Amino acid sequence: MKKILLVFLISYLAVNLFAKEINISSIYLYDKETLTVDKNNKYRYSPLKSFDDNDETVFAFKPQFGYGNRVYRIHFDKNYSIDEIKIKAGYFDKQYYSQNHRIKKITLIFNEGKFDSRLPVEKYPFVLEDEMKEQSLKFPKIECNEIWICVDEIYKSEKYNDVCISELSFFNEGEKYKTQIRPDSYGRSEYKYDNSGKLIEEHLRADHINYQIKYSTDKDGVSEGYATYFDMEDNQEITEKIKTIHPIKNNEEVIEQLYGTKIKHIYENNKIVKTEVSKNDETYSINYYYSNNKLSHTDCGEFFYEDGLLKGYFSYDYYYSDGVMKNFEKITRIFCSYYLEYNDKNQVIKRVVSSWDGYSGVK
User: Fold this and answer.
1) Which of 81, 187, 207, 358 is deepest in the core (most CB within 10 A)?
2) Residue 310 burial by CB count (10 A; 0-12/13-18/19+): exposed, middle or buried?
3) Average of pLDDT values for 203-213?
4) How confident is the model at residue 83, as a pLDDT?
5) 269: left (phi over 0), alpha (psi -120 to 50) or beta
6) Would you state the pLDDT for residue 191?
């Protein structure tokens, strides 16, 4: 009996602790009409739902496909070897499966965006059965960093005008990757705290910027962060105020940053409900929405959780842009995607962001 338990434990650890990971850094929807929107939760049926290992959630979209029947593009953080994708095509609930469209013909396009010019563009079409089961899409092993999902034909719904994907998973030589959401890494901050939990230091890095910011807090709770660096042009050491964090007062928390960016977080009943960012004589704002008393989404993206902790925020990009979407793209650069890492006290010790413009746009 002990031997059986030991074998089971070793197998469990091998699968769960040493599983290969594949990181999704961004997702492009072909255009703003693609996503099915719930009136109470804009991102209830978002693409992230196809990577959450939960058949009770789905990515749902209208059968109005873009050029070449493109629906969405999945972009990874680097090149991965893949020779199989498994798909649960449809709403995997017996009550709703036939009431929504199911995918009949699907095409996978690899490396079309040429993020790595050494990788060939590959295209593979498949025909799916109309059954509520996971189906395998196998192809010759390919190195890739992005995939377009194209829906060429559907099995018609009995009721709703939505196409659904419950799950997508990636494999190489029979081994399943553990899919993680890790937005593009443009810059990062690493944080240190004192024994009372007060922020005392931040190491901020992005492109050519590298600040070691030390914070001090006055009796009114205002924290000022200063960085000392060597100015090569003036050949001298300079100490400069990088950030000022004002405590919540009258339901507003204000953060002032170097070069004139001002961030205002607005609260109601101790919950953040809105953020305004002012820079270059323009002001951008975003609203926050909750589900089960947890941050759920904003106007432009959604929050995601791992092990019960807020792990990050994911804002969506769109392949096709008109005038309205150009403004949307400005907003998503300000309120950009990010992910967080924690210490054993559940304090944020690292924040990785996908845009310098929006370094602190989302709380």
Assistant:
1) 358
2) middle
3) 83
4) 98
5) left
6) 94
Q: How far is CA 293 from the centre of its chain?
A: 21
The third-level CATH classification (topology) of the domain covering 19-181 is Jelly Rolls (2.60.120)
The domain limits of the chain are: 19-181, 187-353
This prediction has a pTM of 0.86
How far is the C-alpha of 334 from the C-alpha of 339, rounded, in Å?
15
> How far lies 71's CA from each of 43, 165, 183, in Å?
16, 11, 20
Cα distances from 300 to residues 56, 75, 330, in angstroms, run 23, 18, 11
pLDDT tens-place string over residues 303-330: 999 988 999 999 887 665 555 555 666 7
